[in-house]
Write a structure and sequence with these properties.
single chain; 248 residues; alpha/beta; Rossmann fold; six-stranded parallel β-sheet; three-stranded antiparallel β-sheet; 8 helices; 33% helix; 16% strand
Amino acid sequence: MIRLAAGPEALSQTAAELIASRARETVARRGRFSVALAGGSTPRGTYERLARSPLRDQVPWERVHVFWGDERCVSPDDPRSNQRMARRALLDHIPLPSTRIHPIPCEDEPAAAARRYEKELHGFFAPGPPVFDLVLLGLGGDGHTASLFPGDPALRERDRWVAAVRKPGEDFARLTLTLPLLNRAAQILFLVSGGGKAAILAKVLEGPPGRLPAQLVAAGAAEVCWLVDRAAAGKVSGVSLQAEDEGR
């Protein structure tokens, strides 16, 4: 499903409302809500809106568990840290117990840190299968999502839930959730904003399937929503957007 927003502000507001609604519904049905957060600049506005009234007061935070889809292996105080961004924009401003915040550990050697986070995930989801209630994802200019990059061996992972990866040109490792875990999510919400993402969004949505990491994620989840602003949707055909227009 594709949902259009007029611009970045509208996208952030719509995403925040969707997350709050999903959290309420899931807690009412199952007693808890698990979400994997995205990094990058696009979700920041969404987190800031969730941290403010009225949405802040509409989420049963005491029943929410927060994870991350990926992390850069830098200090938690480093501006590049996904955890730092989420804490400053959201987590430091809501009544969420620290025991329900599950940051990706980057203190260890990357492969060991991946095993450690996977162990935490196994403990959280046991004894049932791993199913996040919601996973937030972005879209990189090369078609990557989370820290799953084109051509990386992590894309071929079939058993492990967490992988250590390296992006060429970076002097730090990353940890990322893998396809076997992401594609079990009850819902995946992609947030894509700006004209700079228009070309790659069109390739992901309308190009040959299975070639880009974002396509591999979207192919497996139970429910996938692309929340995009009009600038990002500028190269997507009217046919692809027609279903969204009819649903409004």
